[in-house]
Amino acid sequence: MTDTIRFRLNGEETESHSDPSARLLDVLREEFLLTGVKCGCKEGECGACSVIIDGQLANSCMVALGSVSGSDVMTIEGYSKTKRYQKLSEAYAEFSAVQCGFCIPGMVMASEALLSHNPHPTEEEIREGISGNLCRCTGYSAIVSAIKKASENGEGLW
Amino acid sequence: MVTLRNGYIPETLAEALKIRSENQVVPYAGGTDLMIKAQPSSYLFLNKLSALQKVEQDGDMLHIGPGCNYTMLLNHPAVPKVLKEAMIRIASPATRNRGTIGGNICNASPKADSVLILYASDAELKLSSIAGERIVPIEEFFTGRGKTILREDELLTDIRLPLKGLDDYYYYKVGARRAMAISRVAFVGLLNTENGKISRVAAAFGAISDTVLRFREFEAMLLGKTLAEATALKPAFLAKYQEAIVPIRGRVSAEYRKQVCMNLLADFLNSNGI
Q: Of A48, A78, A108, which marks where a domain is finished?
């Protein structure tokens, strides 16, 4: 019997001793102090807690810690050290796609998940890609433009 | 196998069934329904069990591993279009990446969009335990809202989907918006003809009662009939449903749900020239 869950977190092998049935969201924020992972709704409706698990977008509020044993988890904190992030950051700034900012870490993770599977998305595909991420400030159009621009400026990165 | 202080991570299906038979555990597939409550639970983590994530075609029968998430199934060429059309309307990409078809079934919500399609297509479920296995028609699996016949020692291990005749379908989901919408009413209709006569009718209604509803005795009225004969029977056919459908009031009124059901049923017949 073990009380240790091992997984990769932002590129480094790590372990948690929290309850395996705990929300990954809570573990990331409270045990690992990764507060870029936002808690919005706790029911998978808002996307603020989006992380990337084994290359796939996930709402960390709907993931039990035990289910990521052996997985690769990336949060905005890890992603922000990449070149791809830089391209998204520049494009989000160019279009003023950030207002209050609460949704943005999740929105950026959704942007990355989209571009990593589809480097040249259409506007409709971008809207579908971020359809699980709520933003109450921007009206989305600036975000859609930013993702489109990042995909052009970041040619070859994705 | 990893035995956690609270929970289990099996590496094989045999291990999973053994744990299931010996312990009080909650099977964890994708977690997207379970984690909404997020109560401390002893989970049996099935999410990495490759034995439950296969899709295999055997002639006209498609075997879908219940551990397949929606993204896997949407990307799989053997999965029929009608099922994909229902799955692409489920929640958002993040939820479709984790949520599984087996979880959708075992959660036993009458609003489960994939279950609706399985009802209309006469799918069967394989339930396994260390003692053996049984195969049940999907409509016998559900006994009420959130209730199934799955025993404490059993796991859903295969979804058997007969592929024949699924190309001609009518599907409509009524939700509040495009993404993240829970069905207010969902409907699927299948109508096949052979030599000018109706060989199959299936009309299933989701999100209006404690389980998906399908009325085989009404469907039988149209079997063996030509489209012209079926058209003559249409008023009587619709009247049966008008009498039988008694939707539960939810976030939208029962009257609204009833009207939408009848509209969709009539439109389904219209679309088939009836």
A: A78
